[in-house]
Amino acid sequence: MTDTEPAPAVRETAESIATMEIRGAATIASAAAEALAEQAEAAAAADATASDPAAFRASMRAAARTLRETRPTAVSLPNALRYVLQRMEGDSVDRLRLSVADASEAFVRQLDRAQEDLGRVGANRLADGDTVMTHCHSTDALACIEAAVEQGKSISAVVKETRPRQQGHITAEQLRDAGVPVTLIVDSAARRYLDEVDHVVVGADSIAADGGVINKIGTSGLAVNARERGVPIMTAAQTIKLHPETLTGHTVEIEMRDESEVIDAETRGEIGEIAVENPAFDVTPPRYMDAIVTEQGQFPPESIVTLMRELFGEGAAEPWAEP
Amino acid sequence: MTDTEPAPAVRETAESIATMEIRGAATIASAAAEALAEQAEAAAAADATASDPAAFRASMRAAARTLRETRPTAVSLPNALRYVLQRMEGDSVDRLRLSVADASEAFVRQLDRAQEDLGRVGANRLADGDTVMTHCHSTDALACIEAAVEQGKSISAVVKETRPRQQGHITAEQLRDAGVPVTLIVDSAARRYLDEVDHVVVGADSIAADGGVINKIGTSGLAVNARERGVPIMTAAQTIKLHPETLTGHTVEIEMRDESEVIDAETRGEIGEIAVENPAFDVTPPRYMDAIVTEQGQFPPESIVTLMRELFGEGAAEPWAEP
Amino acid sequence: MTDTEPAPAVRETAESIATMEIRGAATIASAAAEALAEQAEAAAAADATASDPAAFRASMRAAARTLRETRPTAVSLPNALRYVLQRMEGDSVDRLRLSVADASEAFVRQLDRAQEDLGRVGANRLADGDTVMTHCHSTDALACIEAAVEQGKSISAVVKETRPRQQGHITAEQLRDAGVPVTLIVDSAARRYLDEVDHVVVGADSIAADGGVINKIGTSGLAVNARERGVPIMTAAQTIKLHPETLTGHTVEIEMRDESEVIDAETRGEIGEIAVENPAFDVTPPRYMDAIVTEQGQFPPESIVTLMRELFGEGAAEPWAEP
Amino acid sequence: MTDTEPAPAVRETAESIATMEIRGAATIASAAAEALAEQAEAAAAADATASDPAAFRASMRAAARTLRETRPTAVSLPNALRYVLQRMEGDSVDRLRLSVADASEAFVRQLDRAQEDLGRVGANRLADGDTVMTHCHSTDALACIEAAVEQGKSISAVVKETRPRQQGHITAEQLRDAGVPVTLIVDSAARRYLDEVDHVVVGADSIAADGGVINKIGTSGLAVNARERGVPIMTAAQTIKLHPETLTGHTVEIEMRDESEVIDAETRGEIGEIAVENPAFDVTPPRYMDAIVTEQGQFPPESIVTLMRELFGEGAAEPWAEP
Amino acid sequence: MTDTEPAPAVRETAESIATMEIRGAATIASAAAEALAEQAEAAAAADATASDPAAFRASMRAAARTLRETRPTAVSLPNALRYVLQRMEGDSVDRLRLSVADASEAFVRQLDRAQEDLGRVGANRLADGDTVMTHCHSTDALACIEAAVEQGKSISAVVKETRPRQQGHITAEQLRDAGVPVTLIVDSAARRYLDEVDHVVVGADSIAADGGVINKIGTSGLAVNARERGVPIMTAAQTIKLHPETLTGHTVEIEMRDESEVIDAETRGEIGEIAVENPAFDVTPPRYMDAIVTEQGQFPPESIVTLMRELFGEGAAEPWAEP
Amino acid sequence: MTDTEPAPAVRETAESIATMEIRGAATIASAAAEALAEQAEAAAAADATASDPAAFRASMRAAARTLRETRPTAVSLPNALRYVLQRMEGDSVDRLRLSVADASEAFVRQLDRAQEDLGRVGANRLADGDTVMTHCHSTDALACIEAAVEQGKSISAVVKETRPRQQGHITAEQLRDAGVPVTLIVDSAARRYLDEVDHVVVGADSIAADGGVINKIGTSGLAVNARERGVPIMTAAQTIKLHPETLTGHTVEIEMRDESEVIDAETRGEIGEIAVENPAFDVTPPRYMDAIVTEQGQFPPESIVTLMRELFGEGAAEPWAEP
Description:
Six copies of one chain form a homohexamer.
Chain A lengths: L7 H11 L6 H21 L1 H4 L2 H16 L7 H11 L6 H33 L5 E4 L4 H12 L5 E5 L7 H10 L4 E4 L4 H5 L4 E4 L3 E2 L5 E4 L2 H11 L3 E4 L28 H7 L3 E2 L4 E4 L6 E4 L2 E3 L4 H9 L11
Parallel strand pairs in A: 1-2, 1-4, 2-3, 4-7, 7-10
Antiparallel strand pairs in A: 5-6, 6-9, 10-11
Organism (chains A, B, C, D, E, F): Halorubrum ezzemoulense (Halorubrum chaoviator)
EC number (chains A, B, C, D, E, F): 5.3.1.29
GO molecular function, one term (chains A, B, C, D, E, F): S-methyl-5-thioribose-1-phosphate isomerase activity
């Protein structure tokens, strides 16, 4: 390997991410952080980089770029890379290697327990006897409710079916299995049931520096109604969902999904020439969200930017870019 | 027939309404008003009532009660009866008969052109180039959009599918047929598309004296978001939808429909023991609705009570009740 | 008696009102309406007025002025006078007398049943199982809750003590006697309990043409919080509380009561030189009130002006003023 | 003259309005009402119409059309015509003529004292020591402030200059002449001074059936800020400003004025190719306006539609149209 | 003493706190921080811990636990422990001891001047001539007003009596002594007087990570009204009031106090079987609070979590827990 | 020079700032930071301070005070001094000198690229095809729009003229030169055009610790309307605009400018005795601002305090004050 050619372990991980052998936000992030540790190990042993701190750093950046390019739109992957590179420091290759190993290990260790930690934080917001409303399916949101049940609290749930893909059915099933009495409703019935609900709990696809929560389409409309009805609403999201590119003002592009999720071809044919739009997500402004619950504790959405900068850097530049 | 026994025409109409041979809000109302005119004709000819104004009035009230009982929950039926009985006046049977005939005819004549008149009023609120958003399927709401097209305005529509029964498909088809470009979305995508919309147009199942609009579930949540996004929203509803019982504080009972509309039995079986709730309607407070468009012109929801009292009486007592 | 000198019955009633032998808003109003009928009777029999319609009218206005002056700040008194004079019509003294007698009788008859009618209207807004919150003590507000109980609904109440005079204690006792479970709280605890409350029910001292509700100090702050928490709030008030002078923009002067209601002299002495202010009422803007419940039905506050004009005239001039 | 040819007096008035010899909302309305009375006089004397009620009515409609066409966009003109035709009734030409004469006279009499009456109503809303804020120049708004001064109240004013035509200068001068201390500010400074202001008082160009107030550009932005700062805002407008066409949903077209009012040609030339837009008016939604003050008393904007229908008819059809 | 047995000084302090010989949030916190410094001194001299950094750390944790257990619900006590343990660092016992001594001293030094520093910050927000409104009695809030007076500003106060315990009387007296003109009002009169007030100043019982301010019952209702009236509101609170357990989502339990504070036994007996609820505190959401004023400067409530983490750690674990 | 006498370079810079030879927020800040570096150089070479760290520090503080006093009201000047002094650290004069040199250089380097970096961040918030609204003239705001154009996005602008000084004309010209189609409007027309606008972009005169944005008069009223219309609004401001004195509660004094900017003497003379007020700036509360865009990334206004403390210290004391 040349001085900036990634180690075999990095190449393997990159390929597995690209082929989706490795998938899921947390699994990808974990693998990427570990690959960087292996790169550091390899670079510390390689002739070209073993005694040249600058070359070592360059090889780390190159490895990060290789990993980054496998999935340009994932959020957890660059967060893993940022976390580790951000903490790479030292004047010698040995210290550099050690700092990378430590950061990689810390990142993976936290990630392993993130959902459990987050669940406990969210559960602490819920009281015995509470009814929660859910939208879509989020394992982070479920972790909060399940942790509350484990704390011995009696929790009921109003579950929105969440068209077009009806992920509410999965949520209903998992809550049911956790012993939570479930009432299933269509999305349009949400406001009517808010008066019987103590907390709305949703997940997040990603979270922006300005406090906006990007989540399944319908979240923002639900949040506006929750505020109007006086019902607190929280987002449960691990910190790997924080979107550092938004620090520099970048907006998150909203995926448009296939129309067949909304209407089957036959019905559409009968109706005639219409357009069907199927955006996957929307953005909830911070003023309609009461708290973001992470494994690092809870935050008002307006201050999540501080956590984002602390964990993943200030975002003015990508740490894997050549200086 | 005894002095208070309804005329055969009344009995026939009552039966046809009861068996749903006669159905649809406007058709029922029309038939009821006409039956009262026939009752007046018969009573003016019958021995027991021909020369006794009090007996004539009693026979009219009895006929109204007979008609009223066929469908206790319809709104248009009692409105027709109220409209006519409210205008019955005179000291002689002849004048009473005449006033009933006139009121019946006026009511039917207005009803015949109500949707067309209402459509023009609603169309006047729309401008060339506007995009409207619709919820559910309402012929009154459609009449506004179609009248705007007939006025030569170019109108586009964002149509919410309106789970669980997807009446948005019917709306999409009819707008498409009227030459209106249609974009179909799931209910949860509404807030995201509000920024591209100039007016929200909905119908009403009924309208309460306190200005609340009872309409298909999801209307109130849409209205709250329309206000938050600064988009005007109007309800298109003929005056037969005004609910005079609400003058005396009665609330409108919201129908709960079958859970099979929301989830098929098989999926439900797989999920396990959950409840499914399927309310058909909700109530939008007047502060979230900009205008109610009727065939008598447009009104802020807060003043619809005045029209209700003018048309159908003050509601303290039912005009068919024995004094 | 001269042509404009009030009949003895009028003078007696005036004196009894002035000496507070006759008191209470409804009792005063009733007595005043009856006095006008007696004046009409007397004037129709007196030489100077028996055959001169203009003189008859002048004597009625004079009688009204005599009654009006006994209590310049009461609202129900001028409303009674307005109601009757407003309906005085005819070309002959006989017809004038009759119209006054009819109007007086109609007014008294309605007044007799007003609270009961109003109570039923308000009760219809409440549902079985509801918890209501009350402020101060209002027999109109209580009539709504008691009527709901009579309708077989199970109602609970959160009663604000209502400093400084603690009229909440009277409310608590009367609700308790009506079989309503009561929870007493201090005024400051209201917002905290709003989440457990389905309706706020208050009375009114008077109601202004712009929809403002003048009621016991603290009502407006409670209303703002009820709106923020999504809890509907209604004012229960007989139509004799409508304040026709506000039609012409007059504001209602708020009584400042003695400081000893707020703090006893000893404590005040210990504290030192402070001011104590003790306003009796405040004004709740119509946008924070959902409905005004009267014996004529319920109204959004924004349209109460229509009822006010219908019952008591358009207020541009006082009907007892000399033209 | 043929049976539907207008009387000479009508033709003269029409011409004077068309040539703007007669101008000003009130003057036009007065002249039009009087012309109709003269038409009635003439028609009652003319062969073709003297004994034919239908022909008489037709001639009145024709006269109204002639007057109407002189100024298609004025609001006060059709209001005058509506007011009179609306009150034309009777089975004989004589009764018809009389009803027209009476209506015409009543209209003119009210109009003569409208501003004074309105001023007193508005003044009653103000308290001694109040500071008011004004926007643009409105004699109706000024009438309120001046009447308050005449009532002996001490009033101060914060006057917005109201770009682009700086009508605030006229307001400042007239208030100054009335003894009101004036502070002049630029439009952008309004929010900052709202905290020192007790009432905002504006006029209206016209008022819509949905409660929207059409007034000088900038009114709506001021109203939104007044609400946010908790400062009450009222519109002072005579009832001839009510816009009956809006009953049927018509929106009021906003005049676009010349760009030279905004920027002089030279500066514009230096800047280069830009557009300049100069809309004259905007629409304030009723929820941001506390009261509309008219010579008939004050109304919440949401109920002005009732007054509009009472004065000028229900607007479903124009009373001068052939049936 | 064994390696983890607290030093005598710690045991004494613990006992004095438990017996409430030492009380008051600041005094307890000070004593706890000093006890830890004494523990460090003792542990550095004891055989078992003098040369074993791990044992030294364990002894510090044990001491902290001993102190913590004396008052499980106080906020300032764990904050003192967290502050010191958080800053304990070093590889040798000597460095550990030194870091504890430094942290303890810094904490106490800051605490000593906290109220004075905080007062100046709060005073800087007030302007000469301002009127402030207060709720309950808070020495931190008073410090702001008194500092403003010391800065030569003329300040007036509207003091809410604050039922049920009328702590407003104490506030009134202390402000009066500071030369501040005071007007005392009942709690319900607050909204009415907000229009005459420039700032609302309240204290805090504790402050949550989500920006919620826990303070005397009635604060949240006052804050909602202050926002509606456009009046800024600030919380004055030393940083020892920040509640680190809320970082992990824990909610603050609201004490229910005895009913006798609300109603005397005799009156209660007369009323009959009612419940009386007497919650001591409520939670004001951050969106209704403009600033939190601390001795470290002012913060929007939404960012107080950052200060909390900086001072007292990230709260994922209690620093005195065994790892 | 004595131990605390500033070096000649400092004195020269101070004089140039005082005489306004050096002006503009960024230029002043740059010069001040560089002067401190020169002072450090000089002090490290001077006898009295070369080997006495305490004396060296004292000379740095003295130099800072000299610079500070030249312009007591500028914000960027003390920020430069704070930034550098805040980072002065070390036990030896050599390390102290080096830390000052490094901090000075870092500060100047960041400042040089601040507007460009900030522009990119702001540009990222804009989308192709967006229309922006501007108020006044701000090079930071323009940088965002121009960067968006450079990114290839098509941007249009609605430019408020911004009375009284019409800086909108400069903005119009510069945007025009950048190829942005411009529509110029008067300030009062803003709300009407908000419906056609995707983003409002304004600059800032300074930004307070509580998230308030101090900017040209009219900004706050625009922001309130932008929120009401659902249009996002951002402030573009380099971090030298952050106002650290506000950390301690200080409010920013608003300059009152000459009345001749508002009205020429002649017109004023004609109007008579009026006051003219001409405040230069106003304060927009954080709840009406969506984001503050800086060269360090974007922040919700509620968390800008964190950046302020990070860059310029905690503000409890001025770092140039003698301890």
